[in-house]
Write a structure and sequence with these properties.
The structure holds three protein chains of three kinds. By secondary structure, chain A is mainly α. Helices cover 71% and strands 1% of the residues of chain A. In chain A, strands 1-2 form a two-stranded antiparallel ribbon. In chain B, the strands form two sheets. Chain B has a six-stranded mixed beta sheet, sandwiched between helices. In chain B, a hairpin with a 2-residue loop joins strand 4 and strand 5. Classes of the chains: A mainly alpha, B alpha/beta, C mainly alpha.
């Protein structure tokens, strides 16, 4: 009699589907909150194409931030180069669509290209330490627009490349992005809360222990790069379809920085919150950019407010006293009870 | 089951292990003692292929030569280990840590993990249920959902043991498993170890500083190391009275006292 | 031959500027283990402020530079005190994000104030100094190289001889032991940021005449500074200097002999090749930083 027969009925379907009872993070509330927000953004009647555009662009950043959060929060890798992969995905998509390739294959191939770049970046990066890696990926993000400027035949040079066929309305793009986000959110919850995530985190924190349980640190780190690359490639493809025009200035280093911000604001652990972080990062600059430069300032201040105050000693002390007085619970203190 | 002949491990100019030979039969609990720096942990590292051993060393496990194997292949051969300082992911819960031990048992390939990991769901379910049982058996149930970084050292050690047991090993290497435990906790651990041998048929090599933990009917055989060499090998009672062992721990005067029968 | 000399001279000038930027970055990194992504914008601010002050007060640019650099130093100290120090114990990712946030704010400020300014920044000194192999060397170029070398020399002396300099070196070797020896880490941290801001600000002002002033103008400078730092390895100030000159001269040679289109890409490729062989940079020591 197998173990599951013996304890049949002690784990509900939801427990297994959502990997609850595996630990202290319950992803369900976040999932449904974010699901609600995504549906609301899509379904609510929106005044004008501008808001459709903002919503779609936010979603694109959310997709890229999801990939980045796997690298940052689980693989222990700082990659500032996801924007570069996004750019490559965008150019690739534009070229393929202009040559008549159907949208679905274009996007799939963009994902593949993104994953490929993930390998190309990931394998050498195994030898680089944290800060050097961060800078090297930053350089990659800087090189992509430079190459686009120069490699005129592929990229139309500084003038950019327009989408001349395979055009899709912004509304459709928004729906597609919404659906994609929901699916990826679910898959990433299962990915990072399951075997892969556990192996990756152990490989990050203790290579020795990971090896002793059959986990190859190298393989998992590269896999994380590939995953993030796939999502960035997809985001880039969707960007090209949304805007209908790509140019080097669309993919400056700030794209990569914002993607990192989105992941960090989202807390790195729960994909549902990462999506919200990505939406914030993608949407706010669009909505605030009436005055040149103001959005950057607001954004910078917002990031600092999110990053610094929770870590101040006073705030920490307050948190601790609230916990000890029973006002806040530490993790989920529910005892395991199969 | 495990046969080591002429094991030599050098770190630069220092010989951590010199010409060590050891034989472990299936179903045995072997206790390894020795003062700090005598090479006990290095021994475990050598068996689990986490340090480089010299060319003339021989390590054979279940008739398989371990030479040339990488450290991540060891688990599949049936050897699992714990670490002296809990090598865990701090932000994971105790239960998640234990589940990680079953990683290699779930054979679904990596690709499927990205697509929702539904292929391996049966194995995952079994592993989860087994982890929950283990956690109850080792009495760390109350801590199951706490982050490893917030859990007391002794609990973390027990979690490590559970994790290693999850891997269904044939041979379990325990490095200072009882450290940080109260006497009653140590008694319970002793019982748990005996259960591991009797019910799960796991052979064990246990490093321990607390010599009394290992004697008292726990270990069938005891090995004493000092400065990288085996200085005594045999029944626990004999080894503990061996003058060489006493000298290593307490100095030669104490050894003389023991020989005199004080 | 003459062309080579001209390129090398230009490269030396550029290299001096990159060195100053790189040195600032390394000083901050060694003292506080922080990669200061805001450095580029902070020092760019010095150049913009100089122009602003020179125009409003109708004084020479070289004179206006002094208050501008002072302001930037104070700003650097403020950033260190109020943003970096409170989170100095956090994992490096958090600090990276914080400095990126600061760089965003600074970029926004620069864009708001000077977004539509496309003025030329006048050189600090005009006129030709002398001739070398048929090419003219301007006073400006002489100024840049000589001041840079002086600054580097002063910094070297400071680190070798002065108490504070020695304290900073000790802290970068082992912060805990330095604290136990009575060295005040806050003082070390503040000094490093102040020095970096000062030296970097001077570098930006030197670089300003060569770029048409716009918010993005100094991005290249910052990037090249980073490249020099990574090339040389994070842990070595002298390495940063060498890296800066290598970058500067290499860049100019490449631009002159191969193509003037995106010579920076050449540097990136060079950097990648170096990192393949020496993952810690040419002079760096292995760092075990867990991000």
């Amino acid at each position: 009699m197998s173990t599951s027969d013996r304890l049949h009925g002690k784990l509900s379907f939801a427990d297994v589907l959502w990997r609850r009872k595996y630990g202290f993070v319950d992803y369900r509330p976040g999932f449904f909150v974010t699901l609600g927000i995504i549906v609301a953004v899509i379904v609510l009647p929106m005044e004008g194409q501008f808001y459709v555009y903002v919503g779609a662009l936010s979603g694109i950043y959310a997709i890229a931030s999801l990939g980045e959060s796997a690298l940052l929060g689980h693989a222990g890798v700082v990659s500032l180069g996801q924007g570069g992969i996004l750019g490559v995905g965008a150019y690739w998509t534009t070229q393929l669509l202009n040559h008549g390739v159907p949208l679905i294959w274009t996007l799939l191939s963009a994902m593949f290209i993104g994953g490929l770049i993930g390998v190309v970046i990931g394998v050498p990066s195994l030898r680089l330490t944290g800060h050097t890696l961060a800078l090297t990926t930053l350089f990659f993000a800087l090189v992509v627009p430079e190459i686009a400027n120069v490699w005129t035949s592929a990229s139309g040079g500084g003038g950019g490349l327009s989408l001349s066929s395979g055009l899709v309305s912004a509304d459709t793009v928004l729906y597609v992005i919404g659906a994609v986000l929901i699916v990826i959110m679910f898959l990433q919850i299962r990915l990072l809360n399951g075997r892969f995530g556990r192996a990756l985190r152990l490989a990050r924190d203790s290579e020795r222990a990971a090896a002793s349980f059959g986990i190859s640190t190298k393989a998992y780190k590269v896999a994380a790069f590939v995953y993030a690359g796939i999502l960035a490639g997809l985001a880039g493809g969707l960007f090209a379809v949304l805007t209908g025009y790509v140019s080097p200035s669309d993919f400056d280093v700030w794209v990569s920085v914002y993607i990192v911000f989105g992941a960090v604001i989202g807390g790195l652990r729960n994909p549902a919150w990462v999506i919200l972080g990505g939406l914030f990062v993608g949407g706010l600059p669009q909505l605030v950019d009436q005055y040149l430069g103001l959005s950057s300032i607001i954004f910078g201040v917002a990031i600092l407010l999110i990053v610094i105050p929770p870590r101040l000693p006073i705030v920490r002390r307050l948190n601790r006293s609230l916990v000890s007085r029973g006002k806040i619970r530490l993790n989920n203190s529910e005892v395991v009870n199969p | 089951m495990l046969e080591i002949v002429g094991l030599n491990v050098r770190f630069g100019g220092v010989a951590a292990l010199s010409n060590v030979s050891l034989k472990i039969e299936a179903g045995q609990i072997v206790g390894m003692i020795g003062p700090n720096g005598s090479g006990k942990t290095t021994m475990l590292n050598a068996i689990s292929k986490q340090v480089r051993v010299s060319q003339d060393s021989t390590i054979i496990f279940c008739e398989r030569d371990l030479k040339g194997r990488s450290s991540s292949q060891i688990i599949r051969l049936g050897i699992a280990r714990t670490f002296q300082a809990p090598e865990v992911c701090g932000e994971e819960s105790v239960l998640e840590t234990v589940i990680t031990g079953g990683h290699h048992r779930n054979d679904s390939s990596l690709i499927w993990c990205f697509l929702g990991d539904f292929r391996g769901r049966r194995a995952a379910r079994d592993i989860l249920l087994e982890a929950m049982e283990l956690v109850k058996e080792f009495e760390i149930e109350d801590w199951a959902n706490q982050k490893m970084s917030q859990v007391p050292y002794a609990i973390a050690q027990r979690a490590q043991i559970c994790r290693a047991v999850m891997a269904h090993p044939k041979l379990l290497l325990l490095d200072e498993a009882a450290s940080g435990m109260t006497p009653s906790e140590k008694d319970q651990l002793r019982l748990a170890i005996l259960r591991l041998r009797d019910e799960r048929k796991i052979t064990m090599l246990i490093i321990e500083h607390d010599v009394s933990f290992l004697s008292d009917d726990l270990s069938d055989v005891m090995v004493a190391l000092d400065a990288g060499k085996v200085i005594a090998h045999g029944l626990p009672g004999d080894v503990l009275r061996d003058p060489a062992v006493v000298t290593a721990y307490l100095g030669s005067k104490a050894a003389a006292a023991v020989t005199r029968g004080d | 031959m003459g062309r080579l000399v001209a390129l090398v001279i230009a490269g030396t000038v550029t290299g001096s500027i990159y060195s100053l930027v790189a040195v600032g970055l390394v000083i901050i990194y060694r003292a506080t283990n922080v990669l200061n992504f805001a450095h580029g914008f902070l020092v760019a601010l010095a150049a913009f402020l100089t122009l602003e002050i020179a125009q409003h007060a109708a004084i020479a640019v070289a004179v206006a530079a002094i208050p501008a650099i002072l302001i930037v130093v104070v700003l650097g100290l403020a950033i260190e005190r109020f943003i970096v120090r409170p989170i100095s114990g956090e994992r490096p990712l958090t600090i990276v994000v914080a400095t990126l946030g600061v760089s965003l704010i600074l970029e926004g400020i620069i864009t708001r104030q000077w977004g539509s300014v496309f003025e030329a920044f006048p050189p600090l000194i005009s006129g030709t100094a002398f001739q070398l192999s048929g090419f003219f060397v301007s006073w400006n170029q002489v100024l840049v190289v000589s001041v840079s070398l002086c600054l580097i020399l002063l910094l070297a002396l400071f680190f070798q001889v002065s108490n504070l300099g020695l304290s900073m070196r000790a802290t970068s070797e082992n912060k805990t032991v330095a604290k136990l020896l009575g060295i005040n880490p806050n003082l070390v941290s503040a000094t490093s940021w102040g020095l970096a801001a000062c030296v970097g600000g001077i570098a930006a002002i030197f670089a300003a005449p060569q770029v048409s002033l716009s918010p993005d103008a100094f991005n290249t400078l910052m990037i090249q500074g980073f490249v020099a730092v990574v090339l040389a390895g994070f842990t070595s100030v002298s390495g940063a200097i060498v890296g800066g000159y290598l970058s500067g001269i290499g860049l100019n040679l490449f631009a002159g002999y191969v193509t003037s289109q995106t010579p920076e890409t050449f540097l990136f490729v060079l950097l990648l090749l170096v990192l393949m062989v020496r993952p810690n940079g040419l002079f760096g020591k292995a760092q075990h930083v867990h991000l």
